Amino acid sequence: MSEQEKSGNSLSPAKRSMQRFLKNRAAVFGAGIIAAALLVSILGGTIRPDSARDANTQNVALAMKSPNFSVPVIEVRINAQSFDEPWWKRLFFGGKRSDYRTVPYHEIAFEEGYLVGYEYGGSESVRGMPLKLSLPDVVYPIVEGSESRTDDGFRFQTVDGAWQEESMEELEAKVRSRHMSQKTFLLGTDKFGRDMLSRLMAGTIVSLSVGAISVLISLLLGVALGAVAGYYGGRIDAFITWIINVVWSIPTLLLVIAITFALGKGFVQVFVAVGLTMWVEVARVVRGQTMGLKNLEFVEAARVLGFPDRRIIFRHIVPNAMGPVIVISAANFASAILLEAGLSFLGVGAQIPMASWGRMIKDHYPYITTDMAYLAILPGLCIVLLVLAFMLLGNGIQDSMDSRIAE
User: pTM of this prediction?
Assistant: First the structure.
């Protein structure tokens, strides 16, 4: 026997399974995609180009712009107290309330303490609304009507009550260096002028959270009912099996839509509805595993020692039945993502302005036959990639747990 075989035989079953998993390139690829999606979801508004909640910053003049579109913008200070939010409020579903409003412009010039020009009108050849902003109003949150001219600049009062005086040259230098920039949309904009890349990134947390909570609900119900049915048998088993068969016979999408209508439209209702339809498969698998495990020696020993049934079921049987359940949970996660996208497409899932891939397809599918088809294709590709990743991960876990597969 070779040294490699000897070292392999000395490994625990868990480590051997991990070795088999890491050798499966497809499974590792799926795990990498899921890890990247999870990272994007956790960091939320801290890494998106549009850090606002739900990446919902709209500008009609920038609607339907192609990828890598660039436009000059000026950041104008909002006349209100600063939104001093901690970074952690931008994680997950959070976002940042900006102290500035972004104004894309067509042309602009400095004239006697004012920025004068035209807003962006939708194309390089079209002027928008006339634009005239005083320099203090661009840089500081000022009290309306408090600004006045001095010999070489302005005197004004900020919203915190402080009076300030600043020269025109200083204000102009601050506007040029801090408030004027070129904004680029790497994946273009949607029909509301929102950054497409940011919306796709914001949709990741919607899909993952629906999948995670739906699977958690299905595990809580399925494991508990399946273990009880398999352990006790008899009438209890017959009754639970009857419930499983009834729920199993109803088309999943119709049942989810019915539950959603009963609970109301919304994001929370979606994962409750999806979770309540996925538990049956988990329950059937756990029931079968429990029926095979309950007569083994370690369970008989637990009974002889006088352990209560609850402890035997959930401390000894269920942990040994979780292998197939983990594989099913990966498949259920993928199904939950598809169901959420379908419900959002039908208008009964995540509601506007929440970024949902299904809703994004719904908003832009009329453009599928035009040169703007990517507006619907990109969220569709995100759904396909994430679902494929979970299926590859599930298959990889199943193969890694099968000791019959060659090392």
Answer: 0.91
